[in-house]
Design goal:
Helix 2 runs parallel beside helix 3. 12% of the residues are buried. This protein has a three-stranded parallel β-sheet, covered by helices on one side. It is mainly alpha-helical and 156 residues long.
Length: 156
C-alpha cells in the first residue's frame, strides 16, 4: 500500500521504514510488559513469515505464532506456498474473511430463503433444473411470495 500522498505506487521504490528486527524488539517489550501475549502477522508472504521466525530465533525474541491472511472457498491464495511455510514453522493461520467478504454468506442466505419458500409450498423445487428463470429471479420470487404469505397471516 503506498504511503499517503504518493500518487503512483512502484513496489521497487518502496521499502519497509522499520526493519523487522526493530519491529520484533518493540513487540518483545510489549510481551515482557504483559500487554501482549503472543505475536501474529497479517497479510504476510512466505518470505516475511520465514524472516520473522528466523530473527526471533536468532536473537531470542518472541516467536510469531499466527498469520492472518485471506482464506476461504473463493480465495485460496494461502495454499500457494504460505501453507507449507506455516506448517513447517508451526505458525497457525487465522483465516481472514472465511465467508469471502460476505459473498458466501449471501449465497447461503439466498439458498435458505428459496428452500423456506419451497417448504411452505410457495415456489417450485429450487433444486430442479430449469432454464426459464435466473437464480436472481427465483430468489426475488421466493422473497415476494414469503412476504405475501406473511401479510396473509398478519406476521410482521
Amino acid at each position: 500500500v503506498p504511503p499517503f500522498g504518493i500518487k503512483y505506487y512502484n513496489p521497487a521504490n518502496q521499502t519497509s521504514q522499520t526493519p523487522l528486527h526493530a519491529q520484533l524488539e518493540a513487540l518483545a517489550s510489549l510481551v515482557q510488559a504483559g500487554k501482549v501475549r503472543q505475536i501474529g502477522l497479517s497479510n504476510e508472504t512466505p518470505y516475511g513469515v520465514h524472516e520473522f521466525v528466523r530473527l526471533a530465533e536468532q536473537y531470542g525474541l518472541p516467536r510469531v505464532v499466527s498469520v492472518q491472511n485471506p482464506y476461504c472457498l473463493i480465495n485460496r491464495s494461502f495454499e500457494n506456498a504460505l501453507d507449507e511455510s506455516c506448517h513447517r514453522l508451526k505458525v497457525s493461520l487465522l483465516a481472514y474473511s472465511p465467508l469471502g467478504f460476505g459473498l458466501l454468506l449471501l449465497q447461503g442466505i439466498s439458498e435458505m430463503i428459496k428452500r423456506l419458500a419451497f417448504l411452505q409450498g410457495l415456489i417450485e423445487d429450487p433444486t430442479a433444473k430449469k432454464t426459464e428463470k435466473s437464480a436472481e429471479e427465483e430468489l426475488a420470487e421466493a422473497i415476494r411470495r414469503l412476504a405475501e404469505a406473511g401479510k396473509t397471516h398478519k406476521a410482521n
